[in-house]
Amino acid sequence: MNISSIQEQILKLKNEKDVCILAHSYQAHEIIEIADYTGDSYKLSVDASKAENKNILMCGVRFMAETCKILSPEKTVYLAQPVAGCSMADQMDKQLISQVKKMYPDYTVVAYINTTAELKTICDVCVTSSSAVKIVNNLDNKNILFIPDCNLGDYVAKQCPDKNIKLLNGGCPIHACVNVDDVKKAKELHPNALVLVHPECTPEVVAMADYVGSTSGIMNYAKESDAKEFIIGTEISIAEHLQYECPDKNFYGLTLKLICPNMKSTTLVDVYNCLNGNGGEEIKLDDQTITDARKCIDEMIRLG
Ligand code: 13P
Ligand code: SF4
């Protein structure tokens, strides 16, 4: 079978089995092509909750499938590739943060959406990279414990100088390994390009950027900008997708270090196998976890 015949089979199976396919923007182009919805992690879970299909298939990482299940408990949610975790979400668990909370009893716990469903059950509010600044500013409490990403937390702290933000030592190992020399080299190669980076990059890299934002923020900025060349400082697939969408502009990956093995572990064949009942994993969360984690997400929707 070639790529287009697998894609045809997938579209046929998905209609027969009433499945809505979600693909995060970090997925490969051939998966984006067969998805019903694409975008950032939060947008996908909202799209899924509004879709009429009984079944959801997430091409992304585990916390994204869990967020879908929390927002649509009545639906059957599958993760296309069961090994696709998120190195950041896996860094902090409920046990660890319960201990840390005892040290900071007067702090509001703000959890990046890249956290497990279980950890969300003991946090006060979720944020995404696009909503973090607004939500932290809208919180009544001055004292914030921001988990798990210290780079995103540092970025938020700089935008919210009135808040007292405590950070822990977590983050995305992929974005965190971009360094100042990588940015200098990319700018030397493409002197007319604007540098767009995700706030999961280090503060030194963020300081060199022309624009800082979420995956959707970067894509929208590049599409709407009058500029013609862009250095993309987030997972390498974003530069590729933008190149397909904007053929009159040029997009360069900041560095080849920006390849997320978790996101890239899902293949078109995994999607096919999952629809066929020969792969994937159904996401199962108990009712209490769904109820408690949902409070954290509802608070994000209220404050965002
Ligand atoms: P978004 O929430 O912007 O989709 O980002 C998810 C992610 O994993 C970034 O590395
Ligand atoms: Fe997780 Fe980083 Fe991969 Fe995003 S890029 S899914 S934060 S490991």
From TrEMBL:
One of its GO terms (biological process) is 'de novo' NAD+ biosynthetic process from L-aspartate. GO terms for cellular component: cytosol. InterPro entries: NadA, NadA_sf. Its EC number is 2.5.1.72. Its cofactor is [4Fe-4S] cluster. NCBIfam families: nadA, PRK09375.1-2. PANTHER family: QUINOLINATE SYNTHASE, CHLOROPLASTIC (PTHR30573:SF0), QUINOLINATE SYNTHETASE A (PTHR30573). This is Quinolinate synthase. The gene is nadA.
